[in-house]
Amino acid sequence: MKIYTKTGDRGETGLYGADRVPKDHPRVEAYGTVDEANSAIGVARAALGEAHPDLQADLEYLQNALFDLGADLATRFGGPYEKNLARIDAQDVARLEALIDRYQEEAPKFTGFIHPGGHAAAAALHLARTVVRRAERRVVELMHAEEVNAEAVRYLNRLSDLLFTLARVVNQREGFHEERWLVKKRR
User: Fold this and answer.
1) Which pLDDT score, from 0 to 100, does residue 25 have?
2) Whole-angstrom Cα distance, residue 165 to residue 185?
């Protein structure tokens, strides 16, 4: 199978279910941004190396879940291939909440806004968090135009919280100090 199909050469792409839409369609923007977030998590995993196998396992789980979410977003309700996928559901959201709770016990106490950065893996997780927030905005935008799985928005919202927490845990484990936002004083 060749990697190129030439079917997108005129600015269209196929959704799962054979519908063709412009490549800048809100649905494509939504699942494309989820794909970006998945790649950013991959960068974080590469920066972690073989350290922190628990984080590696949870990040691998998240990458697989983001493929599921991308398929969910690429498939319109009622389409012929909808039966071939498992949409993101409340159990998926609950799993993220459990991970947040678990890692938050290890993270430093939150006392205010912090600069994204520190260890390279933490910085990549902060970047992934911001891409997830953009994906969330793209899904909300899509919801104004078409029916979308409401759990997708909840999932992305929790995922950004989890990635923030994981970045803080990486910095904690690696001995990096979090730089706090220093609010500019009024004159």
Assistant:
1) 72
2) 28
Average pLDDT over residues 37-65: 96
Give CA–CA dist 87/143, Å, rounded: 16
pLDDT at 85 over 70: yes
How many other C-beta atoms are found inside a 10 Å radius of the C-beta of residue 29?
A: 19
Q: Can you tell me the distance from the alpha carbon of 187 to that of 128, in angstroms, rounded to the nearest whole number?
A: 36
Dist. CA 118–CA 97, nearest whole Å: 24
What is the phi/psi pair of residue 22, to 5°? Answer: -65, 150
At position 69, the amino acid (one-letter code) is: L
Q: Which residues pair with 21 in a beta bridge?
A: 13
Q: What are 60's two structure tokens?
A: 């691998």
Q: What radius of gyration, in Å, describes the C-alpha atoms of the chain? A: 18
The continuous run of DSSP H or E covering 40 comes out as helix 26-48
The predicted-structure confidence for 155-167, as pLDDT tens digits, reads as follows 999 999 999 999 9
Q: pTM of the full predicted structure?
A: 0.89
Residue 175 has pLDDT above 70, yes or no: yes
For residue 32, the surrounding DSSP H or E stretch is helix 26-48
Would you call 113 helix, strand, or coil by DSSP? coil
